[in-house]
Amino acid sequence: MRIVAFASGGDRSWGIVDEGKVLDLGSATGTATLGEVLRSGRLERALEASDDAPELELTDVQLDPPVVDPHKILCVGLNYADHIKEMGRPFPERPVVFTRYPDTMVGSGQPMVAPRNSSRFDYEGEFSIVIGKRGRHIAAQDALDHVLGYTLMNDGSLRDYQRHTPQFTPGKNFPRSGSLGPWIVTADEFGVVGSQRIATTLNGVTVQESRLDQLVFGVADLIAYLTEWTELEPGDVIATGTPGGVGDGRSPALYMSPGDVVSVEVEGIGTLTNSIVSET
After folding, report:
1. Bridge partners of residue 23, in order along the sequence
2. Domain range for residue 39?
3. Which residue of 12, 120, 147, 256 is most buried, as measured by CB atoms within 10 A?
4. Does 147 share its domain with 31?
5. pTM for this structure?
6. Average pLDDT score over residue span 214-220
7. Positive or negative torsion for Cα 256, 247, 94, 141
8. Statement to judge: residues 259 and 229 lie in one domain
9. Residue 89's pLDDT is what?
10. Number of structural domains, the chain?
11. Are residues 166 and 94 in the same domain?
12. pLDDT confidence band for 250 (50 / 70 / 90)
């Protein structure tokens, strides 16, 4: 199953994608967002309304981040071996974690905004986890039971601001500098996280390419570690890190600029595509 959030005719809603159609479950159930439904434990009940939900053409809606109101967006840095090497960093003993805010994210097809006070706007394609079941102190062997599904992120990064201090936060939280989507593929449909290909293209040229079995810390280990120190809630998003090939690790460096088009793809999920525009 593929779950989306979208805008149509000035209204925002959520639903599921079925053969090029969007079933508008928000309208059918009177619920505003997927996050609201997940946190209330009403997803299964909402899905029962799919037979009576209004149908929209997928091509007629604007996709939003599939969870527009997550309580937490937790991002993992330095989690692919090739990326660690290109950045000249030691292999981490524990996951390197930073946060992003919901207002930094746009949906697939919406423009990412290049801030006017930096020219070092880098792409980072990431495989991401969406939590479906609340938990704290989750053992690794139980972690997958807490996963709703998977989506994609472009963790747009302002490299100069990222390095102002040892904390990554300033470089990761410019408004509308990242993207999430195009939808959530539920864990049962996606299957085992294994050797699926992950790739990023910039203006049609592949700039990142790896496979999910190259993750240093996998899905279960990340959930187990994160819940040692925070409670994960339904709708929370965990970005698992980016492969090698980032623009900042190249010589000469390669950054995103207004007019560019960047796409992130993972086998079994689809493609997250955004243009780049200037901050006004």
Report:
1. 16, 55
2. 2-63
3. 256
4. no
5. 0.96
6. 96
7. positive
8. yes
9. 82
10. 2
11. yes
12. very high
